[in-house]
Design goal:
The protein is mainly β. The chain has a single domain (21-283), classed as Jelly Rolls (Sandwich). 3% of the residues lie in helices and 40% in strands. It contains two helices and 15 strands. It has helices at residues 20-24, 236-239; strands at 28-34, 37-40, 66-77, 85-91, 105-109, 113-118, 128-136, 151-158, 178-189, 206-212, 217-218, 221-222, 228-233, 245-259, 273-283. The strands form two sheets. Strands 2, 3, 4, 7, 9, 10, 11, 12 and 14 form a nine-stranded antiparallel beta sheet that branches. It is globular and about 55 Å long. The protein starts with 19 loop residues before the first helix and ends with a strand.
Length: 284
């Protein structure tokens, strides 16, 4: 990890088992690069590294990032055929028994990372199986450091505030703590200068998510407690756009996923703590 993630002196009364500096000083658990992407629609609505244009959050601010929350996924019968089901996503309002009623709080953590943190959330709807929050960058379309980017990479860490209860993904089962890198891109017809509109969303941009073309499914990286991850998303289409099409990277997006309703009085409230990202840099 870069030096500014290692040497920060943290308050002695910070209620975590290790200082953030110590956490980020550990070896990376995974270094993953995804080179395939697929446009997300409906409910979802490669070169050397460079530090230019990176979001390092060393100035104590959010550097223009925002938080979009709190979404729950449930499996519901389809309208066309009630014997079949489909996944439906919606904002959870209300979603908690206790404060903080606003859900996750976005902040700058120790001038080292962007933090989405929560102390207590209890999902009330038994049909909600998983929940999502999204960390979103500012508009990058006019940033010269991102003009030629064909993707981006981040450092990511998740830890619990409660030292005696540290939940990881179950072994041998689908993970319920995951992260996925996404991006919004603009596609322009070079001949006419016309901005293309997504057929699925009707918006003048396309939302890409990490995708495995062999398995034909979107990728969610399993994220365990107290481990360091460096994730890179560089869709091949950005490096080699279709003939006659120019693609501009507009916005970065990180989806953090965690359990929804798991029982009366249980859920995310049993695992309060922050998701941390930093060193968000362009690729290409």
């Amino acid at each position: 990890m870069p030096d500014n993630w290692k040497d920060e002196k943290l308050p002695a009364d910070l209620d975590i088992s290790d200082t953030l500096a110590d956490l980020w000083n550990r070896p990376l658990a995974e270094t993953l690069t995804v080179n395939a992407g697929k446009a997300l629609g409906g409910a979802e609505a490669r070169a050397a590294e460079s530090t230019a244009g990176c979001f390092d959050f060393a100035d104590g601010t959010l550097q223009g990032w925002t938080l979009d929350q709190l979404y729950g996924w449930r499996e519901v019968p389809t309208k066309a055929d009630p014997t079949k089901t489909e996944w439906q996503r919606a904002k959870l309002t209300p979603f908690t028994h206790y404060l903080p009623g606003q859900g996750f709080t976005l902040g700058n953590h120790q001038k080292l990372a962007l933090s989405a943190s929560v102390q207590t959330i209890y999902v009330l709807d038994p049909k909600v199986e998983v929940c999502d929050i999204f960390l979103e960058s500012p508009d990058l379309s006019a940033d010269p450091h991102w003009a030629g980017a064909t993707g981006f990479r981040i450092d990511l860490h998740r830890f619990f505030c409660i030292s005696w209860f540290k939940m990881n993904n179950p072994k041998g089962m689908p993970p319920f703590y995951t992260a996925q890198l996404q991006m919004r891109v603009r596609k322009t017809d070079k001949a006419t200068g016309k901005v293309l509109v997504s057929e699925e969303t009707g918006q003048p941009f396309f939302l890409y998510g990490e995708y495995d073309p062999v398995a034909q499914q979107f990728i969610g990286h399993a994220i365990d407690h107290d481990r360091n991850y460096r994730l890179t998303f560089a869709p091949a289409e950005l490096a080699a756009p279709p003939d006659g099409i120019a693609i501009t990277l507009l916005q970065l997006r990180v989806r953090c996923r965690f359990p929804g309703y798991v029982g009366p009085g249980l859920g995310e409230g049993a695992s309060g703590g922050p998701w941390l990202i930093g060193n968000v840099c362009p690729a290409g």
